[in-house]
Batch of 3 targets.
Target 1
Amino acid sequence: MDDGPCNLPFHVSVSSGTPIYRQIVEQVQALVAGGQLAPGDMLPSVRQVAQALQVNPMTVSKAYSWLENEGLLERVRGRGMRVACGESSVIDRQAMLRPLLMQAVVHARQLGLTDVQITSQLQRILKEKHT
């Protein structure tokens, strides 16, 4: 995304099957978990995100409200939303990764791949992304 206070790289896919608000929620969670967003960091406004992603502002507002209800974001009067300070802003990165890996393993097994083949593919991908 461009011109946001944090220059967040939000990307959505209308064909993914996952609601757009949920994609935004998951991306904010990942950015916080990965340390790219720290407690106190301001998020781009609803309007900025909606314009950049070409989505309805209510979609972005729904995502931000959900994150606020979960305690990950807090509203700053007159300024927008920021990453909350405190325990609620701590996200278990490994817990976030587990469902994605589980889905990949299930799919790989449906393809008839062995554990060795699955592990080999993962190691190959890790090496490709490390360089």
Target 2
Amino acid sequence: MQITLELPEDIAQGLGSRWKDLPRVALESLALEAYRSHALTAAQLRRLLGFETRMQVDAFLKEHEVYDFTAADFEQDRETLRQLRAREAQH
């Protein structure tokens, strides 16, 4: 599917002066929002943006401050840290 955006010329010029590849920026913005809202998986994001590896996806997400951590992930990390500290205290 091809999507076309109609922008007033002055706005297009202003945005174009900020971002050299405005169509790519628009695609990345759409992809990021779709990923954040769980409309796209990481594999779909990779395909949409033409990345060859998951590492490129991870770097892209990190660059845009999008992290795949849930509250449960943080709780698991906290429990692991608690266990490690308990072991250190025993030695």
Target 3
Amino acid sequence: MKHLSTIGRILYAVPFAVFGLNHFLFVNFYIGSVSSFIPLGPYTIILTGIFLIMASLSILFNKYIKVSTILLAALLLIFILTIHIPGLFDPDPAKWQMALIGLLKDTSLMGGSLLVAGIMQESENKI
């Protein structure tokens, strides 16, 4: 069972590192999806990339997982509220579909983060 949780932890963390790296490599793409009320567009995108990479490293190295997954869930909630939900109101069907896919993806990832945080809380209480 220990091997399954290690594999699961790695499989959960690696995409966040890739998403974070993408925030550095494709800043111009992300600028187009940032709502107009988000301050400092490119800097916010780079800071988000740093947060995603830090969360990934925390999960990969099994350090501060409870805190990092709660913060990751909060970051995903911000994505849902500021990017995906406003995108659902786009009149272009292709953009609306992409917003829905992003909303569902980030909702499931947020649920996974909260699940991991809850498991970590339960394991701390058993000690």
